[in-house]
Amino acid sequence: MELSRPAIDVVSRLLNQRTGQQFESNRHWRMASALAAPLRQRGIASSEMLIHRLSQDKVLAQDVVEALLNNETYFFRDGAVFEHIATRVLPGLVQRRQDQRSLAIWSAGCSTGQEALSLAMLVAEQRHRLAGWSIDILGTDVSAAAIAAARRGVFTQFEIQRGLGVGRMLASFESRADGWHAADWLKQMVRFEMQNLLDGPPAVERFDLILCRNVLLYFDQATRQRAFANLARALAPGGLLVLGGGETILGQTDRLVADRDNPGFYRHVPDLCRTG
For the whole model, what pTM was predicted? Predict the structure, then answer.
């Protein structure tokens, strides 16, 4: 079904209201294909019917938003980032947190959980230096369907092979008839919660490491600034934030600054040090 301009505008506003994301005009081609299944299931055959039903059906509205979210992810995505976390960031954080012997890590926009589980595997591989430590790994996403899938921790053959070597795959997952199941010890290291980044940091927690990659790409500048403010507030003293390869703080926020020791990572600028 080809969507009319009024229908595109209604759906775009709905997505923005629920998630803060902008559905740019160069992505309008994707809207009709993404919505084809949920509209067909409900017998919605015209743009006029879609607009009418969206004003009355909250479940349809949520399903439309879910269909438009980009849940692209895979294990150890952008391997150089995880290598740097393993060899430089985690050792540095461990050194700074020796007195507390605790670390908190947040995967913001975690999609179906691969990023958060990858972080848990990295931590498990460094158990020799983290014995007796409290490690909290949180994955959050605005998509209820993505969080449900992350909590299940079951992956297809295609998903399990994306980014995972054989060693990690066999050590951390079990093959069953319905897919590859994350081991209980791995699932117990991570908690997943539905959370909109624009609503602020989860609870009152502060994090030593935050990954928020390829989330801010879909925000306009004002929304991106709100997100940066929330991310900065969520960083513990000495904590680090890493963004996606196409994202930057330049011209976006004065609450964060590049970390000298970790290229591509950012730290919070204390209020007393900020200009203005």
Answer: 0.89
